[in-house]
Amino acid sequence: MYGRKDQARGAEGTFLWLMEEIGELAAEVRGDNHAALQAEFADVLAWLATLANVMDVDLNQALLDKYGVGCPGCLKSPCACSDSEKP
Amino acid sequence: MYGRKDQARGAEGTFLWLMEEIGELAAEVRGDNHAALQAEFADVLAWLATLANVMDVDLNQALLDKYGVGCPGCLKSPCACSDSEKP
Hints:
Chain A is mainly alpha-helical. Helix content of chain A is 67%, strand content 0%. In chain A, helix 1 (3-30) packs antiparallel against helix 2 (34-54). The first copy, chain A, starts with a helix and ends in a 20-residue tail after the last helix. In chain A, 29% of the residues are buried.
């Protein structure tokens, strides 16, 4: 949606925008406005996708490669790892 | 996949995990290992989705509500806002 501007901004500049949205998400996590919280989640995801695009990463494929089989630890979904294990 | 552990951790604890993954993503943005970079994008997205779940936010719906019509500024995709405007 913003391809030309995104490429001009570059990875470092795009990361800063992602961080700004992470800060706004933090504020809404502390708040009690569910609609505003939902909108901030959308903004963080949009900037994460933008950063992935700028860096030639397919976000959907990344998720499938790492979590497509279930938990990377026990390979099950839901996760059956011991409670003492990460995460 | 991790529902029971996620609820026990709560929003604040889950946000801290998201921040840890953001830090790891930052390290890979600076690096040159594309596979590791892709894996960190997956981890950040996974923790973002986890935080959304913990806070009763539908991440897909959030994205549709905010960006489903295109750019929220000009309502077009690709965005046709002036270069001087955010973002």
